Amino acid sequence: MRSSQANAINILIAEDNDISRELMASVLKTQGFGIIPARDGDEAIALVEERVPDLAFVDLNMEPKGGFALVQHLVAYDYDFPVVIVTAEESSDILMRAQKLGVTRVLQKPVEP
Length: 113
Prior knowledge:
Elements: H1 4-7, E1 10-14, H2 18-30, E2 34-38, H3 41-50, E3 55-59, H4 67-76, E4 83-87, H5 92-100, E5 105-108
Parallel strand pairs: 1-2, 1-3, 3-4, 4-5
Helix pairs in contact: 3-4
């Protein structure tokens, strides 16, 4: 039997900044979403293999595996859930690359709740 947390919409937050990740998580938790926190792309991949989220917020610049590498992995393994890239960078190259990978949206930091 699934717990009430398992019935919630689960959101992967892949963000290497602990404060940013926790802030996003706390805002989303108050809205009833389940949170799957990851510190980088490698941890996010391992977590997605255990439990596929309904949505992912992915920081672009993480080490050792960043946002685009994570999205490339998700595409290569046919994961099918919306991905939102979150970045402080402003570049049309980022938007074009995100579009080619099927990213749902690109948000500029700081992200307002």
